[in-house]
Amino acid sequence: MKYTYYGQSCFLLETSSAKLLFDPFISGNPLAKDIDVAQIEADYILVSHGHGDHVADLVAIAKRTNAKVICMPEIAGWLQKQGVTNIHDMNIGKFKFDFGTVRMVAATHSSSLPDGSYGGNPAGFVLDADGRQIYFAGDTGLTLEMKLLAELYQLEYAIFPIGGNYTMDADDAAIAADYVNCQKVIGVHYDSFPVIAIDKYTAGEVFKRAQKQLLLPAIGETIVLS
């Protein structure tokens, strides 16, 4: 499985049978100015919540690729008004797709859409595909509900926000890694705005002390999830 980072919380997971794009926000992120949005391909787009820094490029990419959008019902309703029709709406629960199983899980955050309408519950996703189990927490603070995932899954990777202010910071994310019993964490949701800027060295040291591995791929970089 491959992971490509596009900045903020946008990334692509490539399984053996599908390309899964998460939270497409690229064109509004100055740090991702070298990413050509028109070249990004996707079979599915998974949307954690409705804030602009997670959906800014959603409609354009969904229409161009005809990717199936997996999202909350409220986001699905908003998408239909934008002319997007290939949608699988779900809520906290799980569903088996052709590439594997997706469980939508709760996140402690908020959610509204670009037009100001309610975006439903914020969420994260656990992907079970190709014999691997990966957790994307979405925008969330630290919550004890994460401990349940350690009982349900053997997570190989956790994709956590680490920028603080709106979400967990590195300290909280290291605790969350313990909660979900995962050794490898990929950091997202940092540096795009001054209020969520981080010191990467300090963040890495936090994870070293916790005996966890923090991965921070550069924007545009692809890594193999081995």
UniProtKB/TrEMBL annotation:
<dbReference type="InterPro" id="IPR036866">
    <property type="entry name" value="RibonucZ/Hydroxyglut_hydro"/>
</dbReference>
<dbReference type="InterPro" id="IPR050114">
    <property type="entry name" value="UPF0173_UPF0282_UlaG_hydrolase"/>
</dbReference>
<keyword id="KW-0378">Hydrolase</keyword>
<feature type="domain" description="Metallo-beta-lactamase">
    <location>
        <begin position="7"/>
        <end position="189"/>
    </location>
</feature>
<dbReference type="Pfam" id="PF12706">
    <property type="entry name" value="Lactamase_B_2"/>
</dbReference>
<dbReference type="GO" id="GO:0016787">
    <property type="term" value="F:hydrolase activity"/>
</dbReference>
<comment type="similarity">
    <text>Belongs to the UPF0173 family.</text>
</comment>
<dbReference type="InterPro" id="IPR022877">
    <property type="entry name" value="UPF0173"/>
</dbReference>
<dbReference type="InterPro" id="IPR001279">
    <property type="entry name" value="Metallo-B-lactamas"/>
</dbReference>
<protein>
    <recommendedName>
        <fullName>UPF0173 metal-dependent hydrolase E5L68_008380</fullName>
    </recommendedName>
</protein>
